[in-house]
Design a protein that fits this description.
Elements lengths: L5 E2 L4 E2 L4 E2 L4 E2 L4 E2 L4 E2 L4 E2 L4 E2 L4 E2 L4 E2 L4 E2 L4 E2 L25 E3 L4 E2 L4 E2 L3 E3 L4 E2 L4 E2 L7 E4 L4 E5 L8 E2 L5 E3 L6 E5 L2 E4 L3
Length: 189
């Protein structure tokens, strides 16, 4: 771990993990065995990076984000080792782009998120999915490329259609949601 990284209170980093310079991890995070956190990555509180997850800069993970085993976040529009003249590219030779994970989002094992992309609040990316475009809040996406196949609540459980066609409810928490124009919002009791 770089001495220039900042770790919040209670954050634990397992062996063989690499946390690079200027990465900032919030409180009570877990970085699993063999995981990689790139320079300048920002993580909120209570995030989990499972074993061998690769989070390249300039990724941003808000509070409560879960990143499953062997997930990859990319950071380059047009990856090349060399320029057209065959000269090895360096840090300033390309534009870094970010994967942004909003509060409570979960990324399943071996998923790939191709930057630039934003994963919405409480969204769930299925294992093995390849995310190439933004994921709405509460969306459940799967496949290659990832497509929305349903909705999930804050408990991570797929929502079920309620009495009206635009209403959904969580079988775990009882929370209700309204679907409008391809987006979902939680109804306050």
């Amino acid at each position: 771990m770089s001495p220039e990284a900042v770790l919040g209170a209670g954050t634990r980093v397992w062996h063989l993990a690499q946390v690079r310079e200027h990465a900032v991890l919030g409180e009570d995070c877990i970085v699993g065995r063999g995981a990689y956190v790139g320079p300048g990555v920002r993580m909120g509180d209570r995030c989990k990076l499972q074993n061998h997850a690769l989070v390249y800069e300039p990724a941003v993970l808000e509070d409560g984000v879960f990143v499953g085993p062997a997930v990859v976040f990319t950071n380059d529009h047009f990856p090349r080792s060399t320029d057209p003249e065959g000269v090895l590219k360096r840090g300033g030779d390309w534009e870094q782009v970010a994967v942004v994970c909003r509060e409570g989002a979960s990324i399943g094992a071996r998923a790939v998120c191709v930057a630039p992309v934003t994963i919405g609040r409480w969204a769930l990316v299925a294992a093995g999915a390849v995310v190439t475009r933004d994921v709405p809040d509460h969306a459940l996406v799967a496949g290659v490329p990832a497509r929305r196949i349903g909705w999930v609540g804050r408990a991570g459980v797929p929502l079920v259609r309620d009495s009206a066609p635009d209403l959904w409810s969580c079988p775990e928490t009882g929370e209700r949601y309204l679907e409008r124009a391809g987006a979902l919002e939680r109804l306050r009791s």
